[in-house]
Write a structure and sequence with these properties.
about 240 residues, alpha/beta, Rossmann fold, 2 domains, six-stranded parallel β-sheet, about 30% helix, binds ligand BV8, binds zinc ion
């Protein structure tokens, strides 16, 4: 558009031109313009039946009340069914061809990066569309489960299945985190997009990257990570990423 301010500094544009290994960490903010509610920020935190989402989405809840956990995730899948990738997801998919190496790591469980065509997305917190057996670990796509009861029985062993999502107090998939940390430690350009950077160990990744990479935060609001970043672009992902 005429008169549109170029996004980011001249230094950033130079670094984008020269970048060989790019690392991107996304959070709920990258899906905000797809209509996916974020968890924090804007003075709102997700609450479900009076429980803060950190409580309902916690390891203890799976032990205590697995049907309630299913109800919570069934509700969120209902919201997500109407959500489509937005220009931020689409632009990040194009970045896979643009850079020699792009590692896309997400905290989101909505599957929108893959839906936009991104390949090899590292999903640190799992995926809301997958279920996992509490006993034998067998996985299934929730949308293909013909078992409507909650919790659904495992197609392999019959035991109850759970959402294949990392809840608070649970370990992240070790291989996924290890791959993400390795990519962060060798990248030369790191983008942190739409995350409040309060959840660990995901929020550690840009710290690892900052040891040798130029780190750029894209977020309408400042975060605890902002002062560590070399550049902060206050804007919405759906506008800033395509503009970059
Ligand atoms: C673990 C799946 C333990 C579930 C999620 C006290 C201190 C420090 C740490 C802890 C602590 N107490 C507990 C912990 C550990 C805990 C943690 O970090 N808690 C935080 C809250 C303090 N971490 C864990 O429990 C992790 N596991 O540590 O293991 C352990 C250790 C050793 C041995 C055994 C066990 C597991 C963490 C994973 C939890 N699961 N999700 C579900 O979704 O229900 S995390 C959840 O938060 C989501 O995945 C989400 O992605 C993630 C982070 O949130 P964000 O993505 O950042 O989203 P948020 O809404 O917060 O922010 C949105 C941002 O977007 C805002 O900044 C906003 O300004 C911006 N934005 C808005 N619109 C836009 C935008 N940006 C760009 N464009 C826009 N249009
Ligand atoms: Zn099983």
């Amino acid at each position: 558009m005429p008169g549109q301010q170029p996004v980011g500094s001249e230094e950033l544009r130079e670094r984008i031109r020269k970048a060989r290994r790019v690392f991107v960490l996304t959070g709920a903010g990258v899906s905000a313009e797809s209509g996916v509610p974020t968890f924090r920020g804007g003075g709102r935190t997700a609450v479900w039946k009076g429980l803060p989402f950190e409580v309902i989405s916690s390891a203890g809840m799976v032990e205590r009340d697995l049907p309630a956990v299913w109800e919570w995730f069934d509700y969120r899948r209902g919201v997500l069914e109407k959500c489509r990738p937005n220009p931020a997801h689409t632009a990040l998919t194009a970045w896979q061809e643009r850079f020699e190496s792009l590692t896309l790591v997400t905290q989101n469980i909505d599957g929108l990066h893959a839906a936009a065509g991104s390949r090899g997305v590292l999903e640190l917190h799992g995926n809301i569309w997958r279920a996992r057996c509490t006993r034998c670990g067998a996985r299934a796509d929730v949308r293909e489960l013909n078992d409507r009861e909650r919790p659904p029985g495992c197609h392999e062993c019959g035991d109850p299945m759970r959402p294949d999502v990392v809840l608070f107090g649970e370990m992240l998939p070790a291989d996924v985190y290890r791959e993400a940390a390795a990519a962060a430690s060798v990248c030369d350009l790191c983008f942190v997009v739409g995350t409040s950077a309060v959840v660990y160990p995901a929020a550690e990744l840009p710290v690892i990257a900052s040891r040798r990479a130029y780190v750029v935060e894209i977020n309408p609001e400042p975060t605890p990570l902002s002062e560590l970043c070399h550049e902060v672009i206050h804007g919405r992902a759906g506008e800033v990423i395509p503009a970059l």
